[in-house]
Amino acid sequence: MSLSLRDQLLKAGLVNEKQAKQATKQKQKQQRLEKKNQVEVDDSQQQAVQQAKAEKLAKDQELNREQQEKAQQKAIAAQIKQLIESARLPKLTTEDYYNFVDDKKVKRLSVNNLMRDKLSRGSLAIVRHGGGYEVIPREAALKIQERDERRIVLLNTPTEAPDEDDPYAAYQVPDDLMW
User: Fold this and answer.
1) Element containing residue 38 per DSSP (H, E)
2) Element (H or E) spanning 23, and its range?
3) How many CB atoms lie within 10 A of CB 84?
4) How many CB atoms lie within 10 A of CB 128?
5) Chain segment 54-94, per-residue pLDDT in tens
6) Residue 1 CB neighbour total at 10 angstroms
7) Tens of pLDDT along 9-29?
């Protein structure tokens, strides 16, 4: 049979009989005063436990939120990758290049005359993909821009074709014209 803590301390010689009786009396006195509501109950341990639970709950909620954000970012990246891979135009190997600016650096992409015209008119766009660049249609570029606009390198505003009734359509405006 196991001994109580009081008996174990007495047997080990850590306390004497007088100290043990005094501790018991003190405990009984405290319990009587608590029953009569004359002494405030020491609930600092309970408060500490509740505070620790609240802190743990807040920490768990923060970790959960971070995990959800990471999962959402992964899902968006997968959607963008799928959009680019399904809509990209085949790469060309021509001597004609289209120059564009990316992060203050001039980059170039091999294009033909039709692609150059569509890029400048805004019906095609250039996006970053897998360490390189891809040419995709404007509709796909707008969907990507909704998700992550940093992936879009070049998306010109669409220009309308000149009017058929324009009397000055045959006259080109020179590039070096000074007003």
Assistant:
1) none
2) helix 17-35
3) 19
4) 18
5) 999 999 999 999 999 999 999 999 998 898 889 888 888 88
6) 2
7) 888 888 888 888 898 898 888
